[in-house]
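quick one, two chains, predict together pls
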Amino acid sequence: MDNLSYLFAAYAIIFAVIFGYVLFIWRRQVALEAELRAMEARMRALTETAGAARKAESRAGS
Amino acid sequence: MNDRAVRLGLGLVTLALMLVALYMVFVYVPTEADQGIVQRIFYFHVPCAWVAFASFALVAIAGIFYLWLGQQVWDDLGYAAAETGMVFCTLVLVTGSIWAKPIWGAWWTWDSRLTTTLILWLLYGGYLMLRAMAGDSEQGARFGAVVGIVAAIDVPIVIVSVRLWRTIHPAVLVTRQGGHGLEDPRMVATLLVSLAAFTALFIWILCLRFVTLRMHTRLGALARTLALAEAAAHD
């Protein structure tokens, strides 16, 4: 291996590792955003259901 | 200005600085007289080390604040910094090894600088393994904070190792005689631009990772709230 090959290998590894790590973070972020949206939707649905149940109860009471 | 815009801005600044640094490394800076073109590895090897040291110092600072204040945000910051530091510490060892082979004739020697850097890598590898095994527990976060603080003691040892012990590792930035070992001002300029590019890269990557950890924490809190709300709805 000549010196140019060592130089190329070093820089190729640096950029491959950095890109790989950024890709890993990006994919993790996309997955977490999807999970958060799903959970927030469930929370909203639960709140609406609870609210509707309370309204029905108060109408039945009066 | 929202989060995404800040992260995008940081990414663009990093990209611009990195392109300038690459131009300077491969076109602008003269070839070093003794080592030839392989010496150009130096201009990214040293900034990787700088980022690794800064990351691990941040792990220690975040650990201190977590132990003192008990706030999850400090634990998330410490973990993000540890992971970032490990990536760049790995690059230091790998690029150093690639540079060593043509110059010293060996991929590795038990030189003081190399050995103390390997110890640093192992210490923070241990931190990440501990956190992986402990999961999201508060105890894991506390142990991690302590490990992160103690392990950071190795950072100044790595830095001064070339002065304390006999070594074949170059003492370029601060020589044993005082002053620096870069003979041409273009080399100094290239190193400074590379340091700036890697500092921007460090801040950008740290922000990205920190945001994912905060999202994970928020997800955990939301899951607990949801579980309680669902339990209450069924009662």
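Chain A touches chain B through 30 residues (CB under 8 Å).
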